Amino acid sequence: MNRRRDVSCMTAHSNVERKASMAENDTTSTGDVSRRLIDAALGLAAEDGWRRLTMAAIAERAGVPLNAALRVHGSRNEVLRAMGHHVDAAMLDEALTFTDQDGPRDRLFDMLMRRFDALSPWRAGLAAIIKDLPADPGTFVVSMQGVYHSMGLALEAASLPADGFGGLATRKGLAAVYLSTMRVWTEDDTEDLSRTMAALDKNLDRAESVVGTLCRVIPCRGKGRGKGKGKAAPTPSPDADPAWTPEDAPGPDDRPSSGHAPA
């Protein structure tokens, strides 16, 4: 009898240890599971489109049990949000390398290019998502919310206002720059993304409200303003392209249309 009790106790103790180990593994592998789900979702989107994609298909492609996948990301749009957070982190890593000699415009240019670099593994999938956005308002809203959040982070890191009335206008202007450049990036087949860099440089010049107009009205934070290695912010001109005013940029509540992009 004592031997049976000993065996029973050993079995119970073993089960407790096994469950504790599984819980620890679940915790430590969450980041890995998230990345696998992101890769799977964007890979499937590139192959079959985004609109009809299910979490079951994403989990199967990722090699993750569906219940485990849903514990990490409850929907495909949550997977898309996670990708945005991943890219935000890569973009902000670039900000850590800036010096006082880098002006806000140069910081914005470098961070957005760093963002495109981080998005490169998922370019085909993102192009497919963009194509499906007009018929998928839920993903459109999630995408635009993510873009606005990310542009706010970029402005903060560049010592430009991201909050208040001026910050809202600046954020919309930078979103217009980013979304317009993304259309070029999705089709840029150059090894060094030279077409994307040229488009971003041109769009920053045209969207003078991002780094020029508002910096003349609202003092920009940081010592490096205007001292960067790139072009100085252009002086506002009545001949500026009206399509690039912040008011014309898409807002988070606007209706979806082709050309608006996630991440």
TrEMBL record:
One Pfam family here: TetR_N
Domain annotation HTH tetR-type: ranges: 31-91
InterPro entries, per database record: COQ9_C, Homeodomain-like_sf, HTH_TetR
Domain of life: Bacteria
Residue ranges: DNA binding: 54-73
Protein's name in the database: TetR family transcriptional regulator
Stretches the record annotates as Disordered: 222-263
Alphabetical UniProt keywords: DNA-binding
Single GO MF descriptor: DNA binding
